[in-house]
Amino acid sequence: MSAEATNPGAPIRRRGRPRIDFRRLGRVALLGPVSRDRLPDAIGHVAEAHRAHHPDADLSVLHRAYVLAESSHRGQMRKSGEPYITHPLAVTLILAELGAETTTLTASLLHDTVEDTEVTLDQVRDQFGKEVCYLVDGVTKLEKVDYGAAAEPETFRKMLVATGDDVRVMSIKLADRLHNMRTLGVMRPEKQVRIAKVTRDVLIPLAERLGVQALKTELEDLVFAILHPEEYEHTRALIAAASAHPDASGAAGAQDPLAAITENVGAVLREAGIPAEVLIRPRHYVSVHRVRIKRGELRGTDFGRLLVLVGEDADCYAVLGELHTCFTPVISEFKDFIAAPKFNLYQSLHTAVVGPDGAVAEVLIRTHRMHKVAEAGVIALGNPYAADGGSGPQTAEPADGERADPTRPGWLSRLLSWQQSAPDSDTFWTTLRADLAQDREITVFHTDGGTLGLPAGASCVDAAYAQYGDEAHSCIGARVNGRLATLGTVLSDGDTVQLLLTEDIGSGPSPDWLDHARTPAARIAITGWFDAHPEDDPSPHGNRPAAPRPPGPQPRATAGSGGGRPGVRAANAMVDRLDATVRLAGCCTPVPPDAVTGFVVRGGAVTVHRLECPSVSRMQSVGRVPVPVTWGDAAGCRVTLVAESFGRPRLLADLTEAIAAADAAIISATVEPPSEQRVRHTYTLQLPDAAGLPALMRAMREVPGVYDVSRVKHPTATV
Fold this sequence. Notes:
Radius of gyration: 33 Å
Distance between the termini: 50 Å
Strand content: 15-25%
Structural class: alpha+beta
């Protein structure tokens, strides 16, 4: 946007300058003999494209917006040497061709006025209303003089938050970036690469998620040409050669194999009485490149796909039936995105058939409406706030005053949620790129029938934080499709998940959860918990030494004097350190009368380990000095036990009965799938008296089929 505006002779913009006389601007902006009821020629092509989608649209507001944009940008030039007004006109034309409604086009004409001219948001609001003002404000960049290096990340954050209320903000931004990418050749090579990388990492994934394939595919090709010029040229040469010699043998004048299949498909559908339009849809450069990487050698039909457009949803399946009846289908290529639409609104049937000469062609089957949405995504939905669903400026406001955007998808809601917990610009920017790199979504179900939308590869940890927020810190396990599962279990589309929470208010996440978290919300919440509870971070590398002790007698600190995660609290362990918080390590869960030692960790807390715990030797190897620990009076304790057994009926019932007979409470339990007829049970138990632990372990060993019971020697995924 403003990076391309140059006006060397213009005075420096100052805040608080007098308001512009819009009537005077309106008079001087009308160049040439233009009547009052006619748009200036410069915007005539925009009006024509707009009327093609919205025949009854009122163009007077576009007229006024153009007058303001042309007047305010007059004298500014792009780096390409063109008048700057050509940029907002080009952006508006892109959106008009995709079917954007009048309010979006009005805002796109004005999208740089507040950023690059003397026009203010108040003036835009007075002249064009709150809605246009909101869209213009949403795409206006933050000034680098105020934000420094954080200007770009914070600008994107601002745009995404605005998009959460109105997806048209991002539609304008995508069209703006497309036109800037088309004219990027006038920039320095290093700046071209920087802009192309941001486009690749942020804008293209956003275009994909909003379903705007027409913008996404062209942006991909433009980025491909800048970041991978050699592969781009090679792909361009392959496409040019295929156009000159369309058959696989390369013989000049031969018929294109894709065209031959298109004729056969059209004949089959006409004979079946199905009204359909059969087209060849060429692949764009990046798509051809991906197919070449996947297959190694391109076939004559790999440079395009058949597109079959019909009138009704039922006709899509009728076409599919005829194609699979009259041609040999490639079953592995069949996908039904009509019954199960993609998360970006995309609907279509995908299949592949083998033609009479053995050529394989991919086929897309969709209605005309589906095709419009596939190309334009959210832009094709019109104004989501119009009372009649049309292009008028009316808005439907809920009773609570919040704008309820019916087009807001689940991924956007999750993004808006986690960005609030990422105040640091670098964290936000890095996390945003990682989040947008996850381009598939799954749906999982609660046991009460509700649903959660999660990125593909998400685990039970992600589901816990998506459903419960910070309350998920107390999660101790899960059931997936009715079976106990570890929190690291990766979920599949359609799974039913029941999260198990403990009532222990002092519980918290395990460091292992970070290895399983895929969503930014989960990772930020877990990291934030450990930042707030540094004494519970088991890493020996992030600790700082405790302050020196003052002379004289020192108070004794006891275990359990602060919060902790499940499995780290037990009986009273005491150390001779001033105001030290004492924690019992989750890796070995020491209880009286175990021989124990302690180490100072980050925050000055002391973590107590059993002497045979592997962490003890690891701490000593990095120079940590042990802290003497003694046990106080016996008390209740929490401990994690592992029972190894042979599989048999009622084994689980007998083990839990033995545990209950010892007056122990089961905090969490995990049963791993049998392996070679052996089963591993992991129990986290709360005992009323640590002295009863040996008797409990003996009772569990006496259960038929159990051949060993031991204390855990490493953290488990469920605690």
